[in-house]
# Entry
Amino acid sequence: MTLTHRLLVILGRLAVLAVILAGAEIGVRSGALSELFFSSPSEIFKALITQWSSGSFLQDVGITVLETLLGLVSGSLLGMAIGLLLPQLRLVSHVFEPFLMVLNGIPVIVIAPLFILWLGLGIPSKIGISVYIVFFAMFIPVYTASLRLDTTFVDALRVMGASRSQIFWKVIVPSSLPSVYTGLKIGSGLALIGAVIGEFVASRAGLGHMILYASGTLDTPTLYLGIITLAVFAAALSFAIDALGPVLVHYRFADEK
Amino acid sequence: MLEFRNISFSFPGRRGAVEVLRDVSFCCKEDEIVAVVGPSGCGKSTLLSLAISLRKPSAGEVLIDGRAVRGSDRRVGMLFQQTTLLPWRSVLENVELGLEIRGEPKDKRRARALSLMKLYGLGGFERKYPHALSGGMQKRAALAQTLAVEPTVLLLDEPFAALDAQTRVVIQNDVVKICRAGKRSMIIVTHDIAEAISMADRVVVLTQRPATVKKIYEIPLSRRAASVADVQSTPEFAHFFKEIWDALDISVTGMAPGVDAAA
# Structure
């Protein structure tokens, strides 16, 4: 891409954003858009100031971010560990496969009340729900990749005299890293969904709670504030995961010539 | 020296045991190159997997220097048809792999891998990843990976099938040279008769399944010729090609006599 092309893309994006913001501001102010259904950027900003000064905004954001990150990290680690180990134990994997598939098929929204029941209204239940869906996002690609591993690599290492654990660490783990990256990409989105769904079902704080409360009290600006904040966090998380790519699968990003 | 002694191999199938190899015996002495040819699916590659203990013979033994092979053996190296270069390791790290598995200290194995790479014309590609190398260079790197641990027996399982014709001849040449220089025993399994004649001192022809040794040809060409291309331009080459082709053909078609008349 040429420099002018990239410059035009950035300018274009800024223009789209400006049109949306200006449209909302003018639309709501002129009365063309109902204040019940829409909010002007200035109203949303006022809601941010109110929420910020009461201290609840930072608390809500902090709680949702914490739930999401802990859910993502522990769910991913669990999914990786089991996805890598299960194919090593053929009998165990054959026994457990249908159970895992059934568990994976249950919609998270109906599992959420169980986690609330087990772990209470606070943060742990939200992390639990997040772990639950992130686990499968990581487990399935890693497990499938381990099952489809090129056996020539394993045979070659065996001929060189490698032990089972050497084969595991030198072939199976590194060959799973592209799938781990895929799992993280999918899982990062799901971790946030899990946390917010948990907050929707029952909670005392968090962005999901803030959104639900604003919706209940017809506080439209705060509702939009919550949605925008979630969107910004989701985007930031996705950028962070993308940046992990060259670390996890460095050879795919290495120079071609 | 590698010896296959009265090897039989069968595996359980849906309708009883499938017999793959029946009483196969031949050997490959030190500083000798033996090619094994046979109709496709006859069990040529199975022979090699027995020599590296990936499978166990139903009867008979594989011996190296008179001792039966059990488990992975340090004296055996194998060059596979598919690449064994791990894509997440640089070429240098791949060449070091065997030494790393044996627990060689880092500076020692690095020095050995670097000198091997230079020897095989891979200098300057140490930090590259395998996907950046051409097919021929990947083969050379895989060969360096196999030979880094200095095996005395080298097994090749249709190693050049995926290469283009010109690269193949160049690599065949290199492998013959490298093998002869190290006084190794080398067994190459191939379906390419020309490859067998131009590289090997002896060619073992197997029959269809269950495979038995049909005939063994002594080929005096490779050792006295300067290159693979030279072998292929001798009149004896054509003679051996026809003989081995005929030997294979009978078992390949396996048609009942009189089938032409019936049609």
User: Anything to note?
Assistant: Residues 71 and 127 of chain A are 5 Å apart (CA to CA).
